[in-house]
C-alpha cells in the first residue's frame, strides 16, 4: 500500500529524515513475489528417498571349498526384487559393517549335559568377533523368553551375561516366543544400517510357546532384518525321534530364509569350531543396500534374489525377502 499524504506529514513531524523516507519508499516500491521458494535439488532427492525404505541385504559368498570370498564389488552383484532388477546404492565392506548380535541359549532340560561346553564356546566367540562398533544381547530360552543381558557394547559385559546363565531341570521350551522377542528387541535397539544377527544354541524342540508360532517367527525375523544362525548340540542323536528332526527342520527353514545357516556339530567338542566358522562368515559378509522401485506401503512380502553372474563358481546366501512397510 502507498503512503498517504497524511501519513507522510505525520512522519515529517515525527522527525523522519529524507534518507529514512527514501528507504521506506524503496521497500514499498520493490515487487513482492507470490511464488513459493523452490527447494534445492538435494532436498527434493532426500524427500523422495524418505518415501521408500532402504532395504538391507546381508550376503555371504563362498568358494567351492566353503571359504568366504572378500574381493567382490558392486558390479559383481545382480539383485532383483520380485524378478525386477534393483539398483544397489551401497555395499558395506566385509568386516567394517557394525553388527548387532543376539545370543539365544536354550537352558531347558534337554541341553543340561552339554551346557558348559556351549557357554565356553560362546565366550570365545564373543572375544573373537566383537569389534568396537558392535553390540551383543543375551537371551535364555525356557518356559518364557528372558533378556539376561541387555545390549552390551563391550565383550566384558557380554561375557558377564553369558556366564550368569545356568540350565534348569524340567523346564519346557518356548522356542518361537523367544525368537520373536529377540528379533523385536534387535529391531528396536540396533543402530540403523547395522547387521542384525540371531545366533541360537538349541535343539529347536518347541513345546511351550503361548504367543507365537513358526510363521510368526519367520515374519518377525524378516521384518526386523535379522540373520538367523543355529547351532544344534544334539549331534547325531537328533535323528532318534521325530520331535528332534522337526526341531532341526524348523531352524534350517529360519536360516535359509534369512541368509544364515544351521549347524549340527557331530561332537560337543566341535562347538568352538562352529562358532569360529560363524565368526569368519560374519567378518567376510557384504551388506547390500537398495531403495525398492516398489514403493507401495501395503505390508506385503517382497521376494529377493541375489546372483553373481560373473563369478558363477561361487555360492551365494542372502535373505529371500522382506516385508514392506504398512503391515500391522
Structure description:
It is globular and about 50 Å long. It has 2 domains: 57-94 and 286-323, no CATH class; 99-283, von Willebrand factor, type A domain (Rossmann fold). With 328 residues, the protein is an alpha/beta fold. The chain has 9 helices and 14 strands. The strands form 3 sheets. Strands 7-6-5-8-9-10 form a 6-stranded mixed beta sheet, with helices on both faces. Mean pLDDT is 86; it is low at 1-37 and 39-50.
Which consecutive residue ranges, at least 5 long each, have pLDDT under 50? 1-37, 39-50
Order of helices and strands: HHHEEEEEHEEHHEHEHEHEEEE
Class of secondary structure makeup: alpha/beta
How far is it from the N-terminal to the C-terminal residue, by CA? 56 Å
Shape: globular
Number of helices: 9
Percent of residues in beta strands?
15-25%
Largest sheet: 6 strands, mixed
Q: From the coordinates shown, what is the CATH architecture of the largest domain?
A: 3-Layer(aba) Sandwich
Number of domains: 2
Oligomer: single chain
Radius of gyration: 29 Å
Instruction: State the CATH superfamily name of the largest domain.
Output: von Willebrand factor, type A domain
CATH-derived topology of the largest domain: Rossmann fold
Kindly provide the name of the CATH class of the largest domain. Alpha Beta
Q: Could you tell me the number of beta strands?
A: 14
Amino acid at each position: 500500500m502507498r503512503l498517504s499524504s497524511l501519513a507522510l506529514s505525520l512522519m515529517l513531524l515525527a522527525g523522519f529524515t529524507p534518507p529514512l523516507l527514501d528507504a521506506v519508499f524503496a521497500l514499498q516500491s520493490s515487487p513482492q513475489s507470490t511464488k513459493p521458494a523452490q527447494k534445492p535439488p538435494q532436498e527434493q532427492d532426500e524427500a523422495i528417498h524418505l518415501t521408500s525404505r532402504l532395504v538391507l541385504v546381508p550376503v555371504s559368498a563362498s568358494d567351492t571349498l566353503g571359504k568366504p570370498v572378500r574381493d567382490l564389488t558392486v558390479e559383481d552383484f545382480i539383485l532383483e526384487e520380485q524378478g525386477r532388477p534393483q539398483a544397489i546404492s551401497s555395499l558395506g565392506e566385509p568386516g567394517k559393517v557394525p553388527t548387532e548380535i543376539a545370543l539365544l541359549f536354550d537352558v531347558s532340560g534337554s541341553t543340561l549335559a552339554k551346557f558348559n561346553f556351549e557357554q565356553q564356546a560362546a565366550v570365545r566367540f564373543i572375544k573373537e568377533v566383537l569389534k568396537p562398533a558392535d553390540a551383543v544381547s543375551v537371551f535364555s530360552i525356557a518356559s518364557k523368553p528372558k533378556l539376561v543381558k541387555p545390549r552390551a557394547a563391550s565383550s566384558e559385559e557380554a561375557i558377564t551375561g553369558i556366564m550368569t546363565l545356568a540350565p534348569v531341570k524340567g523346564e519346557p521350551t518356548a522356542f518361537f516366543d523367544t525368537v520373536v522377542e529377540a528379533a523385536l528387541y534387535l529391531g528396536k535397539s540396533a543402530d540403523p544400517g547395522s547387521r542384525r544377527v540371531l545366533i541360537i544354541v538349541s535343539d529347536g524342540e518347541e513345546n511351550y510357546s503361548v504367543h507365537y508360532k513358526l510363521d510368526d517367527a519367520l515374519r518377525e525375523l524378516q521384518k526386523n532384518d535379522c540373520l538367523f544362525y543355529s547351532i544344534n548340540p544334539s549331534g547325531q542323536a537328533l535323528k532318534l525321534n521325530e520331535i528332534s528332526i522337526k526341531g532341526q527342520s524348523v531352524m534350517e527353514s529360519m536360516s535359509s530364509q534369512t541368509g544364515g545357516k544351521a549347524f549340527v556339530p557331530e561332537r560337543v567338542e566341535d562347538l568352538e569350531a562352529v562358532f569360529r566358522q560363524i565368526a569368519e562368515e560374519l567378518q567376510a559378509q557384504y551388506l547390500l543396500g537398495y531403495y525398492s522401485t516398489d514403493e507401495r506401503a501395503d505390508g506385503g512380502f517382497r521376494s529377493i534374489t541375489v546372483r553373481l553372474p560373473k563369478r558363477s563358481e561361487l555360492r551365494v546366501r542372502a535373505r529371500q525377502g522382506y516385508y514392506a512397510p504398512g503391515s500391522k
